[in-house]
Amino acid sequence: MTAVLSFALLSACGSTLPGYGVGPQAERQAEIQQATRDPAPDTPSVYLDLIGRMQAQGLYYASLAHIDAFEKQYGAQPDTILMRADALRMTDQPAAAAEAYTKLLQTPLAARGYRGLGLIAGAAGDFGSAVQQLQDAARLAPTDPATLSDLGYAELREGDINGARVPLMKAAQLDHSNPKIISNVVLYLLADGDTGRAATLMDQQKFSPGVRAAIRRDADKVAAAGRAQQRRVQLQQDSRDSSNAPIASAQGVEPAPRLLQRFSQ
Protein backbone atom coordinates (compact mmCIF):
# COMPACT_ATOMS: atom_id res chain seq x y z
CA MET A 1 0.00 0.00 0.00
CA THR A 2 -0.14 2.64 -2.24
CA ALA A 3 2.51 2.41 -4.74
CA VAL A 4 4.07 -0.70 -6.20
CA LEU A 5 7.66 0.50 -6.63
CA SER A 6 7.61 2.39 -3.30
CA PHE A 7 5.54 1.27 -0.22
CA ALA A 8 2.72 3.38 0.08
CA LEU A 9 3.50 -0.35 -1.18
CA LEU A 10 4.82 -0.68 -2.02
CA SER A 11 6.08 1.13 -5.40
CA ALA A 12 4.34 2.55 -8.45
CA CYS A 13 4.61 3.57 -12.05
CA GLY A 14 4.66 7.23 -11.19
CA SER A 15 3.77 10.23 -13.30
CA THR A 16 4.68 13.89 -13.00
CA LEU A 17 2.43 16.93 -13.05
CA PRO A 18 2.64 19.10 -16.18
CA GLY A 19 4.94 22.07 -15.80
CA TYR A 20 7.06 22.79 -12.78
CA GLY A 21 7.61 25.28 -10.00
CA VAL A 22 4.85 27.68 -8.99
CA GLY A 23 2.47 26.83 -11.84
CA PRO A 24 1.30 23.34 -10.78
CA GLN A 25 1.40 24.31 -7.11
CA ALA A 26 -0.85 27.30 -7.71
CA GLU A 27 -3.17 25.17 -9.83
CA ARG A 28 -3.48 22.54 -7.08
CA GLN A 29 -4.13 25.26 -4.47
CA ALA A 30 -6.90 26.69 -6.63
CA GLU A 31 -8.46 23.23 -6.87
CA ILE A 32 -8.37 22.86 -3.10
CA GLN A 33 -9.94 26.27 -2.60
CA GLN A 34 -12.66 25.51 -5.13
CA ALA A 35 -13.37 22.15 -3.47
CA THR A 36 -13.77 23.75 -0.07
CA ARG A 37 -16.10 26.44 -1.48
CA ASP A 38 -18.45 23.96 -3.10
CA PRO A 39 -21.65 23.51 -1.07
CA ALA A 40 -21.98 20.15 0.64
CA PRO A 41 -24.47 17.74 -1.00
CA ASP A 42 -27.72 17.28 0.90
CA THR A 43 -27.56 13.45 1.12
CA PRO A 44 -24.89 11.35 2.86
CA SER A 45 -24.27 9.03 -0.10
CA VAL A 46 -23.73 11.89 -2.55
CA TYR A 47 -21.48 13.64 -0.06
CA LEU A 48 -19.36 10.51 0.40
CA ASP A 49 -19.10 10.19 -3.37
CA LEU A 50 -17.86 13.78 -3.57
CA ILE A 51 -15.18 13.10 -0.94
CA GLY A 52 -14.16 9.96 -2.80
CA ARG A 53 -13.72 11.95 -6.02
CA MET A 54 -11.58 14.50 -4.18
CA GLN A 55 -9.27 11.75 -3.00
CA ALA A 56 -9.13 10.22 -6.46
CA GLN A 57 -7.89 13.61 -7.70
CA GLY A 58 -5.27 13.81 -4.97
CA LEU A 59 -7.07 16.51 -2.95
CA TYR A 60 -6.43 14.78 0.36
CA TYR A 61 -6.21 17.92 2.50
CA ALA A 62 -9.52 19.18 1.11
CA SER A 63 -11.06 15.77 1.71
CA LEU A 64 -10.04 15.93 5.37
CA ALA A 65 -11.94 19.19 5.74
CA HIS A 66 -15.04 17.68 4.15
CA ILE A 67 -14.76 14.50 6.24
CA ASP A 68 -14.84 16.74 9.32
CA ALA A 69 -17.94 18.47 7.95
CA PHE A 70 -19.62 15.16 7.05
CA GLU A 71 -19.03 13.62 10.47
CA LYS A 72 -20.25 16.79 12.18
CA GLN A 73 -23.51 16.52 10.27
CA TYR A 74 -24.03 12.75 10.01
CA GLY A 75 -21.60 11.19 12.50
CA ALA A 76 -18.59 8.95 11.93
CA GLN A 77 -19.02 5.68 10.07
CA PRO A 78 -16.60 3.07 8.70
CA ASP A 79 -16.48 4.70 5.25
CA THR A 80 -15.46 8.08 6.65
CA ILE A 81 -12.96 6.50 9.04
CA LEU A 82 -11.34 4.75 6.07
CA MET A 83 -11.30 7.93 4.00
CA ARG A 84 -9.77 9.82 6.90
CA ALA A 85 -7.13 7.13 7.42
CA ASP A 86 -6.20 7.14 3.73
CA ALA A 87 -6.01 10.93 3.67
CA LEU A 88 -3.86 11.04 6.81
CA ARG A 89 -1.49 8.46 5.33
CA MET A 90 -1.24 10.32 2.04
CA THR A 91 -0.56 13.62 3.82
CA ASP A 92 2.36 12.14 5.79
CA GLN A 93 0.64 11.70 9.14
CA PRO A 94 1.38 8.00 9.79
CA ALA A 95 0.66 7.91 13.53
CA ALA A 96 -2.79 9.45 13.14
CA ALA A 97 -3.45 7.27 10.10
CA ALA A 98 -2.51 4.11 12.03
CA GLU A 99 -4.90 5.09 14.81
CA ALA A 100 -7.71 5.50 12.28
CA TYR A 101 -6.93 2.22 10.50
CA THR A 102 -6.93 0.42 13.86
CA LYS A 103 -10.50 1.64 14.47
CA LEU A 104 -11.55 -0.25 11.33
CA LEU A 105 -10.38 -3.63 12.60
CA GLN A 106 -13.70 -4.24 14.42
CA THR A 107 -15.83 -3.16 11.43
CA PRO A 108 -16.82 -4.71 8.10
CA LEU A 109 -13.85 -2.78 6.61
CA ALA A 110 -11.27 -4.65 8.71
CA ALA A 111 -9.42 -5.82 5.60
CA ARG A 112 -8.85 -2.21 4.57
CA GLY A 113 -7.66 -1.44 8.09
CA TYR A 114 -5.05 -4.20 8.02
CA ARG A 115 -3.96 -3.17 4.54
CA GLY A 116 -3.50 0.43 5.62
CA LEU A 117 -1.44 -0.64 8.62
CA GLY A 118 0.67 -2.78 6.31
CA LEU A 119 1.28 0.11 3.96
CA ILE A 120 2.35 2.34 6.86
CA ALA A 121 4.76 -0.33 8.11
CA GLY A 122 6.18 -0.78 4.63
CA ALA A 123 6.64 2.94 4.14
CA ALA A 124 8.67 2.95 7.37
CA GLY A 125 10.85 0.11 6.07
CA ASP A 126 9.43 -2.48 8.48
CA PHE A 127 8.58 -5.09 5.87
CA GLY A 128 8.29 -7.89 8.43
CA SER A 129 5.36 -6.13 10.10
CA ALA A 130 4.00 -5.16 6.70
CA VAL A 131 3.86 -8.81 5.65
CA GLN A 132 1.96 -9.77 8.81
CA GLN A 133 -0.63 -6.99 8.41
CA LEU A 134 -1.09 -7.62 4.70
CA GLN A 135 -1.49 -11.35 5.28
CA ASP A 136 -4.36 -10.54 7.63
CA ALA A 137 -5.83 -8.23 4.99
CA ALA A 138 -5.54 -10.90 2.29
CA ARG A 139 -7.16 -13.47 4.59
CA LEU A 140 -10.21 -11.21 4.94
CA ALA A 141 -10.21 -10.07 1.27
CA PRO A 142 -8.73 -13.02 -0.65
CA THR A 143 -9.77 -11.74 -4.09
CA ASP A 144 -8.55 -8.15 -3.76
CA PRO A 145 -5.71 -7.81 -6.29
CA ALA A 146 -4.25 -4.63 -4.78
CA THR A 147 -3.86 -6.27 -1.36
CA LEU A 148 -2.32 -9.40 -2.88
CA SER A 149 0.11 -7.28 -4.91
CA ASP A 150 1.11 -5.27 -1.84
CA LEU A 151 1.64 -8.50 0.10
CA GLY A 152 3.83 -9.93 -2.64
CA TYR A 153 5.91 -6.76 -2.77
CA ALA A 154 6.36 -6.71 1.01
CA GLU A 155 7.49 -10.34 0.98
CA LEU A 156 10.00 -9.55 -1.76
CA ARG A 157 11.40 -6.65 0.26
CA GLU A 158 11.59 -8.93 3.29
CA GLY A 159 13.71 -11.31 1.20
CA ASP A 160 11.10 -14.06 0.85
CA ILE A 161 11.12 -14.53 -2.92
CA ASN A 162 9.34 -17.88 -2.85
CA GLY A 163 6.63 -16.52 -0.57
CA ALA A 164 5.93 -13.64 -2.95
CA ARG A 165 5.16 -15.85 -5.94
CA VAL A 166 1.63 -17.02 -5.11
CA PRO A 167 0.09 -13.68 -4.05
CA LEU A 168 1.64 -11.92 -7.05
CA MET A 169 0.40 -14.55 -9.52
CA LYS A 170 -3.07 -14.33 -7.97
CA ALA A 171 -3.03 -10.54 -8.27
CA ALA A 172 -1.86 -10.67 -11.90
CA GLN A 173 -4.60 -13.09 -12.93
CA LEU A 174 -7.27 -11.14 -11.05
CA ASP A 175 -6.22 -7.82 -12.64
CA HIS A 176 -3.87 -8.46 -15.55
CA SER A 177 -4.17 -4.92 -16.93
CA ASN A 178 -2.95 -3.11 -13.80
CA PRO A 179 0.56 -1.73 -14.49
CA LYS A 180 1.38 -1.52 -10.78
CA ILE A 181 0.67 -5.20 -10.32
CA ILE A 182 2.56 -6.13 -13.48
CA SER A 183 5.57 -4.13 -12.34
CA ASN A 184 5.60 -6.19 -9.13
CA VAL A 185 5.49 -9.37 -11.20
CA VAL A 186 8.48 -8.07 -13.18
CA LEU A 187 10.26 -7.41 -9.90
CA TYR A 188 9.56 -10.97 -8.79
CA LEU A 189 10.91 -12.38 -12.08
CA LEU A 190 14.11 -10.35 -11.72
CA ALA A 191 14.52 -11.46 -8.11
CA ASP A 192 13.97 -15.06 -9.16
CA GLY A 193 16.63 -14.79 -11.85
CA ASP A 194 14.26 -14.93 -14.83
CA THR A 195 15.61 -11.82 -16.55
CA GLY A 196 14.42 -12.88 -20.00
CA ARG A 197 10.75 -13.07 -19.06
CA ALA A 198 11.09 -9.88 -17.03
CA ALA A 199 12.47 -8.00 -20.05
CA THR A 200 9.74 -9.41 -22.32
CA LEU A 201 7.00 -8.37 -19.91
CA MET A 202 8.42 -4.84 -19.60
CA ASP A 203 8.52 -4.58 -23.39
CA GLN A 204 4.93 -5.78 -23.68
CA GLN A 205 3.80 -3.22 -21.10
CA LYS A 206 5.92 -0.49 -22.74
CA PHE A 207 7.42 0.52 -19.43
CA SER A 208 9.39 3.75 -19.61
CA PRO A 209 13.15 3.78 -18.94
CA GLY A 210 12.49 5.47 -15.60
CA VAL A 211 10.10 2.72 -14.47
CA ARG A 212 12.51 0.00 -15.60
CA ALA A 213 15.34 1.63 -13.68
CA ALA A 214 13.15 1.89 -10.56
CA ILE A 215 12.24 -1.80 -10.78
CA ARG A 216 15.90 -2.77 -11.11
CA ARG A 217 16.81 -0.65 -8.09
CA ASP A 218 14.14 -2.47 -6.12
CA ALA A 219 15.51 -5.78 -7.42
CA ASP A 220 18.89 -4.89 -5.90
CA LYS A 221 17.13 -4.22 -2.56
CA VAL A 222 15.31 -7.54 -2.79
CA ALA A 223 18.58 -9.36 -3.46
CA ALA A 224 20.17 -7.69 -0.43
CA ALA A 225 17.17 -8.64 1.73
CA GLY A 226 17.41 -12.22 0.49
CA ARG A 227 21.07 -12.43 1.48
CA ALA A 228 20.25 -11.00 4.90
CA GLN A 229 17.50 -13.56 5.38
CA GLN A 230 19.85 -16.39 4.44
CA ARG A 231 22.34 -15.15 7.03
CA ARG A 232 19.62 -15.07 9.69
CA VAL A 233 18.58 -18.62 8.85
CA GLN A 234 22.19 -19.80 8.99
CA LEU A 235 22.77 -18.10 12.34
CA GLN A 236 19.63 -19.74 13.75
CA GLN A 237 20.79 -23.14 12.47
CA ASP A 238 24.25 -22.64 13.94
CA SER A 239 22.69 -21.64 17.26
CA ARG A 240 20.53 -24.79 17.33
CA ASP A 241 23.49 -26.97 16.42
CA SER A 242 25.65 -25.47 19.16
CA SER A 243 22.92 -25.91 21.76
CA ASN A 244 22.70 -29.62 20.92
CA ALA A 245 26.47 -30.20 20.95
CA PRO A 246 28.15 -31.99 23.92
CA ILE A 247 29.19 -29.58 26.64
CA ALA A 248 32.93 -29.54 27.33
CA SER A 249 34.40 -29.19 30.80
CA ALA A 250 36.05 -26.02 32.01
CA GLN A 251 39.45 -27.39 30.96
CA GLY A 252 38.19 -28.12 27.46
CA VAL A 253 38.13 -31.90 28.03
CA GLU A 254 35.25 -33.78 26.47
CA PRO A 255 32.79 -35.41 28.89
CA ALA A 256 33.51 -38.99 29.82
CA PRO A 257 31.56 -41.73 28.06
CA ARG A 258 28.31 -42.65 29.73
CA LEU A 259 29.59 -46.06 30.94
CA LEU A 260 32.47 -44.46 32.81
CA GLN A 261 30.12 -41.87 34.27
CA ARG A 262 28.04 -44.68 35.71
CA PHE A 263 31.09 -46.24 37.32
CA SER A 264 32.15 -42.95 38.82
CA GLN A 265 28.76 -42.65 40.46
Task: Report on the architecture of this protein.
The chain has 265 residues and is an all-alpha fold. It has a single domain, classed as Tetratricopeptide repeat domain (Serine Threonine Protein Phosphatase 5, Tetratricopeptide repeat, Alpha Horseshoe). Helices cover 71% and strands 0% of the residues. Helix 6 packs parallel to helix 8, helix 8 runs parallel beside helix 10 and helix 10 packs across helix 12. The protein is globular and about 65 Å long. The protein starts with 21 loop residues before the first helix and ends with a helix.
Secondary structure: elements and pairs:
Layout: H1 22-37, H2 44-56, H3 60-74, H4 78-90, H5 94-103, H6 110-123, H7 127-140, H8 145-157, H9 161-174, H10 179-191, H11 195-205, H12 209-244, H13 258-264
Helix pairs in contact: 1-3, 2-3, 2-4, 3-4, 4-5, 4-6, 5-6, 6-7, 6-8, 7-8, 8-9, 8-10, 9-10, 10-11, 10-12
